[in-house]
Write a structure and sequence with these properties.
This protein is an alpha/beta fold. It is built from six helices and six strands; from the N terminus they run αβαββααβαββα. It has a single domain, classed as CBS-domain, CATH 3.10.580.10. About 40% of the residues lie in helices and about 20% in strands.
Length: about 140
């Protein structure tokens, strides 16, 4: 293994929180508050469906800024689907480049087609970049 290589699985958050796309944004926000997260993964509806993702910034941009009701808007109306997923063994430098190119701030991490974590710029910088600098 390359000493400078830090993989996404080394820095990701292992706690993943899921939500049903039919829930209201208000219900999703209550879950986010309760579990203290900024990101929810929207469940697949069936085996051939794709995951969605909803982040606080999406809700602010699509509801708060446009004065839409959180009680009358469903998660599926504000989510991003399909969610861009990141392989667990991807080098965090490539992950950061992908985030920059696609305008992402966080993404689900997958292993064998299943979500096993979430990675964000914060994780890559605070857990990854600090480790890289310690090794040099």
């Amino acid at each position: 293994m390359n000493k400078g290589l830090i993989q996404v699985k080394d820095v990701m958050k292992h706690q993943v929180d899921f939500v049903d796309g039919m829930k209201t944004v208000k219900e999703a926000l209550n879950e986010m508050l309760h579990i203290e997260t900024k990101t929810l993964i929207v469940n697949k509806r069936h085996e051939h469906d794709e995951w969605g993702i909803v982040v606080i910034a999406d809700i602010a941009r699509m509801l708060l800024a446009t004065d839409r009701s959180v009680e009358r808007t469903n998660v599926y109306e504000v989510m991003t689907k399909p969610a861009i997923t990141i392989r667990q063994d991807m080098d965090i430098r490539y992950c950061a480049r992908l985030f920059e190119r696609l305008g992402l701030s966080r993404a689900p991490v997958v292993r064998h087609g299943e979500i096993i974590g979430i990675v964000s710029y914060t994780d890559m910088v605070l857990k990854g970049l600090c480790d890289i600098n310690k090794k040099h």
